[in-house]
Design goal:
The protein is α/β, with parallel strands linked by helices and 288 residues long. It is built from 6 helices and 13 strands. Strands 2-1-3-4-13-12-9-6-7 form a 9-stranded mixed sheet. Strands 5-8 form a two-stranded antiparallel ribbon. The chain has a two-stranded antiparallel sheet with strand order 10-11. Strand 3, helix 3 and strand 4 form a beta-alpha-beta unit. 40% of the residues are buried.
């Protein structure tokens, strides 16, 4: 009986290895750059973390705002790849990790969004939520408005954040395979993004910051308070119900390189391309 069990295990291990070897790797594009974050290092942290966890090949499109040849504002990183009408054709999923708050070229943004409307899955990290905005974006956008498409793709509208303080993350849908088995945790100092309105997104985790009492120069006191927002969610976008995964966590390098964060992003990526099983494990051939 023991011999049979050992043989069965050996055959299973061999089958898993064969499936992994035969399965083509996921083609992942990480788009990174813009103001306010250490994208020079974070792009590499993401690439290394994803490739260590998945059967995936990660390509990076990076705009270095500190380079001598960068002529725009820090909040206006223009990615050459997005200028191509068929920019998405070589990828299975794109990770938006750009911080492009002041890119207001509607045709350029439409070219990005249309790729997702037409079926390209996306993973959106941190400042991606505060990109590609114009008009009265501080107010809830209206469905179909010219400044609504990016938020509609995300499934949630955010316009700002609080101070850098620890965020207590509590998973609200513990049966969702993206977060199944994950334990709640408290981050290092991070930025808690607001929720102006939830559109079609479905929350997976809330984040709470304890904001201390504050006194301004005139002596006015703002009492201490707890602030809570959705910080992890999914969305289905457009006529093809393209899968979109987002998290507002990820300002500081120590958070991005945290194994818990990379596990979360990796599972969200797998879910977006339909390769995440109900138990939270990668489909055969896609894990490592």
């Amino acid at each position: 009986m023991k011999l049979r069990s050992l043989l069965a295990l050996a055959l299973l291990a061999g089958l898993t290895t064969t499936l992994s070897a035969e399965q083509k790797p996921l083609r992942v594009l990480v788009v990174a750059g813009g103001c306010c974050h250490d994208y020079a290092n974070q792009k590499d942290i993401l690439k290394k973390g994803i490739e260590a966890r998945l059967n995936a090949t990660v390509e990076v499109a990076y705009v270095d705002i500190k380079a001598k040849d960068f002529k725009g504002k820090a909040t206006q990183p223009v990615f050459e790849i997005y200028k191509n009408a068929d920019w998405a054709k070589n990828f299975d999923v794109v990770i938006h990790d750009e911080c492009a708050a002041d890119i207001t070229d509607q045709a350029y943004v439409a070219n990005i969004v249309n790729a997702h409307r037409n079926g390209l899955p996306a993973v959106n990290l941190h400042c991606a939520m505060h990109s590609y905005r114009w008009g009265k974006f501080q107010e809830p956008v209206k469905a179909g408005a010219d400044n609504a498409s990016w938020y509609e793709m995300l499934g949630l509208q955010s316009t700002g954040h609080g101070p850098q303080l620890p965020i207590a993350i509590a998973f609200s849908d513990k049966e969702n395979p993206i977060v199944k088995g994950f334990a709640d945790w408290t981050t290092i100092n991070e930025e808690l993004y607001n929720n102006v309105q939830v559109l079609t997104g479905k929350g997976l985790a809330n984040g709470t910051q304890k904001v201390p009492e504050k006194k301004d120069k005139a002596g006015k006191v703002t009492p201490a308070k707890d602030v809570t927002s959705i910080v992890v969610w999914t969305n289905e976008f457009g006529p093809k119900k393209t899968r979109i995964f987002s998290t507002t966590i990820g300002h500081n390098n120590a958070t991005v390189e945290d194994a818990r964060y990379l596990d979360l992003v990796t599972r969200g990526l797998l879910w977006s391309v339909g390769k995440l099983e109900a138990d939270g494990k990668p489909s055969a051939g896609f894990g490592k």
